[in-house]
Amino acid sequence: MVKEKIKHFIVENFLFGERELKDDEPLFESGIIDSLGLIKLIAFIEKNFNISIDISEIMIENFSTLNDIMEVLKSKSNPT
Predict the structure, then answer these.
(1) Hey, where are the domains in the chain?
(2) CB–CB of 21/7 below 8 Å?
(3) DSSP-derived secondary structure for the chain
(4) 59: closest CA among 19, 32, 27?
(5) Which of 18, 22, 33, 75 has a C-alpha 20 to 30 A away from that of 10?
(6) Residue 13 has what pLDDT?
(7) Tens digits of per-residue pLDDT, 21-72?
(8) Separation of CA 78 from chain center
């Protein structure tokens, strides 16, 4: 459910509903999201899922694909 909401946000806000997004599609390399888009995406995640993302975690590698984003969120819900 979380993954679908994030995917929907990306599709509607960055792809303008014109096409689907694959879970492993590179968001930056394919030009879907830029640095400003990353900030918008993080703000969406923090607001909608009550998760705080530390500035040190904001690296392109952590948000490169939808699957990578889900790994970040998984690590937030299962701290080691």
Answers:
(1) 17-77
(2) yes
(3) -HHHHHHHHHHHHHSTTSS---TT--TTTTTS--HHHHHHHHHHHHHHHT----GGG--GGGGSSHHHHHHHHHHHHS--
(4) 27
(5) 75
(6) 97
(7) 999 999 999 999 999 999 999 999 999 999 999 888 888 888 999 999 999 9
(8) 18
Give me 6's structure tokens: 């994030």
Q: How confident is the model at residue 78 (pLDDT cuts 50, 70, 90)?
A: low
Residue with tokens 């096409």: 19
Residue 34 corresponds to which tokens in the numbers above? 């830029």
Q: 17-77 sits in which CATH class? A: mainly alpha
How far is 63 from 42, CA to CA, in rounded Å? 9
Tell me: the pLDDT tens digits for 4-30?
Answer: 999 999 999 999 999 999 999 999 999
Amino acid in the structure at residue 26: P
